[in-house]
Prior knowledge:
The chain has no helices and ten strands. It is mainly β. The chain has a four-stranded antiparallel beta sheet, with no helix packed on it. Strand 4 and strand 5 form a beta hairpin. The protein starts with a strand and ends in a 5-residue tail after the last strand. The mean pLDDT is 87.
Amino acid sequence: KIAGTIAAGPDLRKIGVYSFETNSYEALVDLKETVPVTWLRDGRHIIYAAGDKIVLIDTQTKKVRDLFSNPNVEIRAPFVSFDGKLLYFAAANNESDIWMLDLTDKP
């Protein structure tokens, strides 16, 4: 499976998962812009940055929840460490910083 964002219209994007087994795409979330998505190591959850938050999608239950939020920054480029325990991301306001989020207590 692969996850990504597709254009579903002039002002609509969808995050979804494409299955090579079934040759089908399943839309999970509607958005207004294209965003990169990242799989967690469990192969079930994907994350993406949306403005001031990082969002977690459970691809089996279709549940979506905010994993982290900070209204003072724009969050970009989430990346999961190889061992799946840390999430790195850029947090920008007037300057950019790299932040880490511990995922060991998360799904």
